[in-house]
Amino acid sequence: MPDRGGGPTGPRIRAGRPSRRVRTLLVTLGVLAALAMAFTMFAGFWTDWLWYRSVHYSSVFTTTLWTKIGLFFVFGVLMALAVGFNIWLAHRLRPPLSAMSMEQQSLDRYRMGIAPYKTWLLLAVTALVGLIAGASAASQWRTWLMWVNGVSFHQKDPQFHRDVSFYAFDLPWYRFLLAFGFATAILSLIAAGLTHYLYGGLRVTSPGSRASAAATGHLSVLLGIFVSLKAIAYWLDRYGLAVKSSDFKTTGNWTGLRYVDANAYLPAKTILFFIAVICALLFFATLWRRTWQLPVIGFGLMVLSAVLIGGLYPAIVQKFQVQPNEQAKEAPYVQKNLTATREAYGIDHTKVSEYSGRSSTDDKTKLRDQVGQTASIRIMDPNVVSPTFQQLQQIRNYYGFPKNLDVDRYTTKDGKEQDTVLGLRELNLDGIPKNNWINDHFRYTHGYGVVAAKGTESDDKGRPVFTEKNLPSKGDLGTYQQQVYYGEKTTTYSIVGGPQKEIDYSDDEGEKTTSYTGRSGVNLDNPLNRAAYAVSFNEPQILYSGAIGKGSRILYNRTPKDRVESVAPWLTIDGDAYPAVVDGRIQWIVDAYTTSNGYPYASRTTLGDTTADSLTATNDSRAVVAQQNQVNYIRNSVKATVDAYTGDVKLYQWDAADPVLKTWMKAFPHTVKPRADISPELMAHLRYPQDLFKVQRELLTRYHVTNAQTFLSGSEVWQVPDDPSNDSRDSVPPYYLSMKMPDQKQQVFSLTTTFTPNGRDNLSAFMAVDSDPRASDYGKIRILKLPTSTTVDGPKQVQSQFNSEPSIAETISLLSRGHSQVEYGNLLTVPLDGGLLYAEPVYVRGGTLKYPLLRKVLVTYEGRTAFEDTLDEALDKVFGVKGSEPPSTGTTEPPASTSPTVRQALEDAQKAYDAGQEALKSGPDWDAYAKAQKDLQDALRKAEDAQSKADKPRTSGD
Q1: What is the pTM (predicted TM-score) of this model?
Q2: Tens digit of pLDDT for each residue in 828-837?
Q3: Secondary structure of residue 606 in the 3-state scheme
Q4: Euclidean distance between CA atoms 942 and 912, whole angstroms
């Protein structure tokens, strides 16, 4: 019988080897996995291309893509060829016979092991280093485009007299080439050295010569190339001193040459350059001399020189020449830094005026009347009243307002411009009655309408005076396209235009449906497109859902800042995109900056640090894009718009003189429209951007000084005060309001801030910039500098005085009893007749009333303080006279709602709240207050129940 155990007469079973069926299955799975990975990569590429084509910026995609591909292949091939050639050359120069030694006998095993695979191993090594080098080079696409398209600044640095473009556009590319050269030389040297060692050209323990003549010559040439590159590095380092950052104990962060740089490091770099050239020639000479003696001596001399000349000598100069008389030695270089920094940040034309801080007149009537002429004091704080907008104008739970509203200018019916607080009623997916894929992406797709209120008024109940309200929105803004498909809160994709109807808005008659008619987004008629988006969004239903049909389009990348950043990746985007009604459409306006890190002598700043304040600390969406970027040149060179309905992105050239923008416009032609294309209606809503202003104010804490000696002494260093309205250590944000500075004849929409001395709380200066582009002085920065011989209260001190005033403290304590919460609004500072007027709205969230209402206004002027129900009453009390203008209070209708029951319940709630406040004032009468609180809770409960019933969807078919 046959041996079943696999003996000599039985079949032999090959243990551990898979069967043919298993191998076929594994190969199939491997192929499918490879195809899946390939399609995933293709899907990302394809959807990006489709998106750029949909927004008509396909040239940005193709230019960026081809630039990356070109850099990848050019530098990847160069690195692969260099390393591969040196491996091949080392193998070719191997000695014909290896020395008989234990070392070589051990290496023989490796040589024999790799012999059959030499070609494949060479290809693998060169491919790996080529891929790494290519990927690194592809990431330098911005550096390449700026170098090849760079234009002149027509301005030279004060040390080397090179055009600034050399430092901004050329030097970064040269440094990349140098770094690539070093990497190539080092990898080639390592690869060649290992190959020579493997094949006996280099020996460690074998008897006789340690290196063959061929290996000596080959490695010497590579070392000579490395040292030559070091010589080039020394030469470029000379220019790098003009953009080098360092810490300077008297001024902090410093960029540019100091005394020790100009008189020690600069000559040292020049000397080291010549030493490196000589050392490189000695290495090259080894091809003929076949000895390492002279090159090694030369290399040692170069290292020793680098330590002595490049390190020790500058330290001696700093210790014995600079420190004994630092201010005199450093003053000329500080002056260069002052001039360059002010030019690079656009603060060189800042007007600094002395301001007494004390009123020049005792005429109280005149002062009272001047208030309305000097400023439109805004008592509606856009950073506080968003919940009020939400409660009174949300209408439906699936709408929402941003956490921080915006301030703009709009013309009233009588033709006057007024500061207006506004926000869009955007889609809020968290408020959808029932979340599912159809509801989230097909039915609830957009917000609806603008809600706006007067910035300088409230009604008699402390509510905003709405100039645009209800659903659909109606008011002073006229007729416009109200659907909001693109907004700050719209972070998910929607599929529109197909068989599934969208919910437009709801009123007393029920839900109104619509179907998107714009040409935005990407068409999903193509099965390939559907498959690509199904993979990219990890949503298989996109591929087979019946809700997608002819005409369906997918909208994504929908926030204004993301869209602008995508179509212009070379721009830095301001943190605050704001909406405006322009030519019958809602347009998001986005400020964008061109920046550089290579402006000689200009001090650097980190955008995330200098633009941080109390608003960005609580709202990440207000933070500048690219926060970690270090820059020392910035311009607001582009104004961008994003249509809230179509998503169309338009870039307008704002700073026609900016060489960085000109460079990018050469790299990406036809992407930026000329400034002349900005319509007058759009121009009326443009403004000076906040993030640029915050960067400039941070620099001006030190660079308001123009004298080098004063700058070095540090005696006039300022700081941006902390926000006095909260207990955080975050900087106070700048505020928009219409006002006039002492040298102006009429109010101008402005952006303002205050400064305090370093480490103190009294006021040192007030700063404002004209923010209306229609004004002749748009962008002009004015600083009112207060005297140092006397003290003027700063924002924190004023806030402390408010809180410590016995009568005010008692009233605030009463307002905050029970479950009520007091919230302070923006503390506005207004220069008035030599003095400074402070005004701050005070809001109360009462009990279960979840939104703040304006209850009091704090005003102070030269030590006189008032805490009254309205701004006019507070001003009258401060100045002791009644203003000649009528009180700035208005009336408003009850909150809009589709349900009369809701409206009635909210009115009852307001009456109960008012009764509670009256009870607090009279006595206080705690019994009456308790009854009012109970009535308030009952009314709010009725309102909530009625609103929930009204919010229930009236149609089915989700």
Answers
A1: 0.86
A2: 999 999 999 9
A3: strand
A4: 13
